[in-house]
Specification:
The complex is a heterodimer of chains A (213) and B (486). Helices cover 59% and strands 11% of the residues of chain A. Chain A is α/β, with parallel strands linked by helices and 213 residues long. Chain A has a five-stranded parallel sheet with strand order 2-1-3-4-5, with helices on both faces. Chain A starts with a helix and ends with a helix. In chain B, the strands form six sheets. Chain B has a five-stranded parallel sheet, with helices on one face. Classes of the chains: A alpha/beta (213), B alpha/beta (486). Chains A and B meet through helix 4 and helix 5 of A and helix 14 and helix 15 of B.
Chain lengths: 213, 486
């Protein structure tokens, strides 16, 4: 447990190389990979997330912790797959068609990766059919869409409708966000959730999985 | 560079000072204190004892200005330096001596009690952008004769920050000095590390009462810093023009400088004031008026011209509630004051023409002070040139959130306000309860009260201070102090 606490501590401080090295050490010492993941890495990310919420740390601190998380996951991921341990979940994300704004979407992607999710970032100007196709091919759990313009928001509804016709609806959760988007709009178009910022998006995706379990 | 606001040319300052000196030497000042009149006479001033009137001389004014120090340092109750009032350095202090408080829990304006004062002092411990406390209001649950010393006592018991205060009577000075001696240990230690500033107010136009002039002399004898609070009222008890009001302020304040420096050459003094533009509709003294604030900034320039530390009552409001007027008047005053380099900026927390303190406003004003302090640090290049490398990094990495440049300068370049300032997007704001600034301020007050920790003063000092205060209270028929029952 001492080693896992060290992993958590170093992750919270953003020391990516140390976290990767300690993770290797933990693997060599035969600590089960899911234990390293849950009691070391995710425990550290949760602590950072809580501090961020309370304004004790800043966004760069969260992202540095996320970077450390990713460096450890490179070590751990093959072992998790080999052991048949489910990886946290897969999110397909992008800014909708005709929308070239991607700052908010990028932040959400970075934070989701940091929280241990696999993120497939489709970039910006993504048409509805691409969201559906990739989500289907990749067997994704979540589609995340962002829009900054009221004129591009209808693409979100197209994706929801297409998910219904393609039989993905319900199985793949759909999350929307962006300045003109609201909780009400998400409900109206039939999306599963709305998030108001990056940290909130992570909480939202986490909640999909806790509800599933 | 440090941005500096200037309202007066040096030529105009010289003219104002010259006119003020002429007034002191030719029209003179009324001083209702025979001891002081006698001292002035000994130094060559022309005194009319019957009329309590004195004509100054150019020589005593020059001598006073020569011996007055150009900086005043303050130290907290633990002896750590907190202030160096000089040049363009700025520090905030709450508005002082309110007779009412705006109760943050009931929303009512009412007389304050000891428990309010203790909450105030605890709150002040946690407000990082307000460097000193003031004896901000007057507890109404003790006899008036000890209300000045008792509020200083409570401040020193519950908060480590130095205190801007003042005595209401001649006798009260003694216990207020003794409380400080109990903390410092000796008169010499107190002289080396001043803990308080005493406000001493002349009466407009051109008068000193027995009490205020004696307080001033008593402070000088113990090297306790004083700030002169001249209060010309433009158009009523002073000329309507801003320059005319400045001439009066200069004359009254210079007369104070002379009294202090002749009593004790080198005693620390602060060139302060609380002038106001008189309101010709409401018959009030608006502290939030732009002209009031202009006179404040301008007399500060005169103080700087004379090489003296400065103070003004400026970052405050005449509103009765924590509303938009409270925010705008306080922000405008704080910004102008800081840009002008007023060394001790009095006002935070204050409403209603310096008569009502509000803890809610105090926590909001703490943010105004924080932003203002950031403003006057100005803009300086920090590894910004050549600019290409950071932009290459931005284009390569797509963002600079974890760039070493960001991590190195984030906290230095940006002021991060506390929870009373709303910077959430509207969805998050609604999700978190659609809280108003007043709601957020109330939460912040409770948080700061919960996290308060006792001062580091040793128990024997606290016991000695309590003994001194009890002895003083007993003179006025009180056998216990209200704070003991909290």
């Amino acid at each position: 447990m001492e080693l896992l606490s060290q992993i958590s501590f170093n992750l919270q401080n953003g020391f990516d190389e140390t976290v990767a090295a300690l993770t290797k050490e933990a693997v060599e010492k035969q600590i089960p990979p899911d234990e390293i993941l849950n009691n070391g890495l995710i425990a550290g990310m949760n602590a950072v997330g809580e501090k961020f919420k309370n304004h004790e740390v800043f966004l760069p601190d969260v992202l540095l912790a996320a970077r450390a998380m990713n460096s450890a996951m490179e070590v751990l991921k093959p072992l998790l797959i080999k052991g048949g341990i489910p990886i946290k979940g897969k999110v397909v994300i992008g800014s909708v068609k005709d929308d070239l704004h991607d700052i908010g979407k990028n932040l959400v992607a970075i934070l989701l990766k940091g929280a241990g999710f696999e993120v497939i970032d489709l970039g910006n100007d993504v048409p509805a059919e691409k969201f559906i196709r990739i989500a289907s091919e990749e067997n994704a759990d979540v589609i995340g869409m962002s829009a900054l313009l009221t004129t591009t928001m209808p693409v979100m509804k197209e994706v929801v409708d297409m998910a219904k016709t393609e039989g993905l609806y319900g199985r793949v959760r759909i999350m929307v966000g962006g300045a003109p988007v609201s909780k009400e709009y998400a409900l109206e178009i039939g999306a599963d959730a709305y998030s108001y910022d990056g940290a909130n998006a992570v909480e939202t995706v986490e909640s999909f999985f806790s509800k599933d379990s | 560079m440090r941005p500096v606001l200037r309202l007066l040319s040096n030529e105009l300052i010289e003219k104002i000072v010259s006119e003020a000196r002429d007034i002191l030497c030719n029209l003179g000042v009324e001083i209702h204190n025979d001891g002081i009149l006698s001292m002035l006479s000994d130094h060559g001033a022309i005194v009319d004892s019957g009329k309590k009137h004195v004509l100054f001389t150019a020589d005593i004014i020059d001598r006073a200005l020569e011996t007055a120090p150009d900086s005043v340092k303050l130290y907290d109750v633990m002896g750590r330096q907190t202030h160096d009032l000089t040049d363009h350095k700025v520090y905030f202090t709450p508005g002082s001596a309110a007779i009412n408080i705006l109760d943050s829990r009931s929303g009512q304006i009412r007389k304050p009690s000891t428990s309010d004062y203790v909450e105030y002092a605890k709150l002040m411990s946690g407000l990082d952008n307000i460097a000193s406390q003031s004896t901000a209001f007057i507890p109404a649950d003790v006899p008036e004769k000890i209300s000045d010393s008792y509020r200083l006592f409570l401040s020193l018991m519950y908060c480590e920050k130095p205190v801007v205060t003042g005595a209401f009577t001649i006798d009260a000075f003694n216990v207020m000095r003794d409380l400080q001696l109990a903390i410092r240990g000796s008169a010499d230690a107190l002289r080396k590390k001043p803990l308080t500033i005493f406000s001493c107010c002349p009466t407009a136009p051109l008068k000193w009462s027995d009490v205020t002039s004696q307080n001033l002399v008593d402070c000088a004898r113990h090297f306790i810093p004083v700030e002169y609070i001249s209060m010309p009222l433009s158009g009523f008890m002073a000329p309507v023009t801003l320059v005319g009001s400045l001439v009066q302020h200069t004359a009254e304040t210079l007369s104070g400088v002379v009294l202090s420096q002749l009593t004790q050459p080198g005693t620390p003094i602060i060139y302060g004031g609380s002038p106001a533009a008189f309101d010709m509709w409401y018959e009030t003294t608006p502290m939030g008026a732009v002209e009031t604030q202009m006179i404040d900034c301008a007399f500060n320039e005169i103080g700087k011209y004379l090489n003296l530390p400065t103070q003004a009552y400026i970052a405050l409001s005449d509103a009765k509630q924590l509303d938009a007027q409270a925010g705008l008047e306080t922000s405008m005053g704080a910004t102008l004051a800081a840009l002008s380099g007023i060394n001790s900026i009095s006002g935070p927390g204050m409403l209603d023409f310096e008569s009502c303190q509000s803890l809610e406003k105090l926590v909001v004003d703490n943010e105004i002070c924080g932003m203002t302090l950031r403003l006057v640090r100005g803009i300086e290049p920090k590894e910004d040139f050549p600019a290409m490398p950071i932009f290459e990094e931005l284009l390569r990495e797509k963002h600079l959130l974890i760039a070493s440049h960001t991590r190195k300068y984030l906290h230095d370049e940006h002021y991060f306000p506390g929870a009373v300032i709303d910077r959430a997007n509207s969805s998050r704001w609604m999700e978190e309860g659609s809280l108003t600034i007043s709601d957020r301020a109330k939460i912040e007050i409770e948080r700061l009260l919960e996290t308060w920790e006792p001062t580091g003063l040793p128990d024997d000092v606290l016991v000695e201070m309590t003994g001194l205060m009890k002895k003083e209270a007993a003179k006025f028929g009180m056998d216990s102090l209200p704070h003991e029952n909290l």
